[in-house]
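In this supplementary section we document a worked example of the pipeline. Step one takes a protein sequence of length 348 as its only input; no multiple sequence alignment statistics are reported here. Step two produces a three-dimensional model, which step three serialises into structure tokens for compact storage. The input and output of this example are shown verbatim.
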Amino acid sequence: MNDSALSEVIARFRTSAALRSKASIGLVTEIFGKTDWVHGPGDDAAVVECGEEHILVAGEAIWPPLVEADPFGAGVASVVANVNDVAAMGGRGLALVDHVVAREEAARKVLEGIRFAAGIYRLPVVGGHLTIWDGTPSVSASIVGRAVRPLSSINVAPGQECLLAFCLQGRMRKDFPIFSSIRDRGAELAGDIGLLPGLAEAGLLSGAKDVSMAGTLGSMAMLLEPSGCGALVDLAAVPRPHRVSLASWMSVFPTYGFLLTAPEAAVAAVRAKFRARGLACERIGSVDDTGRLRVHLAGEESELLDLSTQTVTGLTASGPESEAGWSSSDGDGPGTARDPLPDASPGT
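The serialised model returned by step three reads:
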């Protein structure tokens, strides 16, 4: 890998429509006001205290072009995204409800995809909503889970180590930036997902975030955003499948991919847990107090964004005071208004 590989990674980050779209989540702050990252809006799921239990609530809407092109795949994705959200919070899924609006033929395929994926994760589908119509289809789903020791991005702090865990079994889609392990990994995925809450309960992790449509580096930016910390990511240490370029892999939405932060003393134990299941897990950098997300490759370093002046989600902007919570996968947090990520053209 050389200069051109680093330049392509940077260009894709700066021109990522999926990452820039996260800024629109700031609308939530304008309407509902600020709460906090833990109880919503904020992390991958909102934590609802119920006596001594930590109940997790999350929801995901699937990208409309995927719904239209592949209804079955959209159904699968609605389960995967929700399961990953709960796992990134150190929790286990309890039940899922779906929301489908589509023509009957498409709706049937969506529901078949949901049934297929929910079976793999052993997650009950307990209800939802179905509207049959001939207009533009839409698919979303919501999940309820439970965590003994919730993880949160607000726990990210300087001195922690950054790890990246992936399932490298799978295949790249040709039509969307998705790496699917559903058919290749199959039933093993339920146990793979169980690693996250197990590590959280053992006190080995501080924070986590699943790798979403924003890609690995966009997801890293969102993991760092609430704390205002920075990190230097060693791109050469990123585990990836053979025959997939670094730039493509950094932009992909995988079935199983998690960014983790942990104390230095826990790194070996965390890596060992993933490797014991045949999953890849590598240390890719450290959290620092710079507030800047940087990448390093082949002796070259470049800054992707400065979180002291820029925001990813836009949810740190001031809003009307509110005591009400609101759950979102990439939500709100305390802080002052900052500039959203700018639009950029390739090569800028």
